[in-house]
Amino acid sequence: MTSSALTHFLDLDDFSHDELLRLIDLGIQVKSERKNGNLRQDLFGKSVAMIFQKPSNRTRLSFEVGIYEMGGHPILVRPDEIQMGSRESIEDVARVVSRYASAVVLRTNKHDDLKKFSEWSSVPIINALSDYSHPCQALADVMTIRERFPEVSGLTLTYLGDPNNVCRSLIQACRAADIGVRVACPRSYWDDFSIFKKNQIFWSEDPLEAVQNVHVIYTDVWTSMGQESETLKRTNDFRPYSVSESLFEGARYDAIFLHCLPAHRGEEVSDEVMDSKRSVVFDQAENRLHIQKAILLSVCE
Predict the structure, then answer these.
(1) Angle (nearest 5°) at CA 139 between 33 and 103
(2) Shortest CA distance to 280 belongs to which of 153, 157, 107, 127?
(3) Element containing residue 74 per DSSP (H, E)
(4) Residue 23 belongs to a domain with what CATH number?
(5) Assigned domain for 5 exists
(6) Is the pLDDT of residue 6 over 90?
(7) Is 75 exposed, middle or buried (0-12, 13-18, 19+ CB in 10 A)?
(8) Is the N end or the C end of the chain the one with fewer CB atoms within 10 Å?
(9) Residues with catalytic annotation?
(10) Inter-axis angle of helices 165-176 and 17-35, to 10 degrees?
(11) pLDDT surpassing 80 at residue 232
(12) Based on the domain organization, do 196 and 213 belong to the same domain?
């Protein structure tokens, strides 16, 4: 990682492409070691605070298991316990937690709160999801692609649906691995995100056009946490971008399907695709554990 004594892991744009690829390599390595019964103990005697302001399944479990397997002690802090930002300021919580823990895993509603916390923390902060980005997920995504396509440079991935925080980080991770990205969504959603324009991502309103001859098809839920009031509109807007078996016919014969989960079966993806041989979503979910370990090893060294 960087040469600084303190490295926060907030957004993939904070790191060079080589640094991100080394993290993915490390994730692959620790996965192999675990399979062979070898668990690193680099976190022995260290505690890692896990502050989650949003519900979590894979992120919480992968971090908690990863910390434990490397000899550390994960401490889950519920939002109602500290009421960060109301009962106690973000600045004060960051300074207090830094006195106890060796690192903090923070899943927050606002990316600005994540950045403020990191500014006042004296230990590394890991972004476990914010409204802006989901960097841990994106590295696990590219790791999963590498397992199916050992030579990833020159591959093409199509993301269909809501260009959200997951999509942002996915674009960043794919750029590091030289994987081309296409995004298929309604124009009204595209116009809101300058990162896509800045990175010259191929964009289309036509999902059939977007999946032609691609290696990877990726989607996410149409309505993220905090957007529940927009559910009906989003369902109508994104319905044409649902991933079905017929949509997959335009992709390569060896194309794979990715989804960061949880999946709303029958909405953004059909049961047939989720449960098909093309689907590697559960390998993808498992790889969250190994990438989380790689990140922890890098920031807690």
Answers:
(1) 75
(2) 157
(3) strand 73-77
(4) 3.40.50.1370
(5) no
(6) no
(7) middle
(8) C
(9) 107, 134, 137, 220, 260, 288
(10) 90
(11) yes
(12) yes
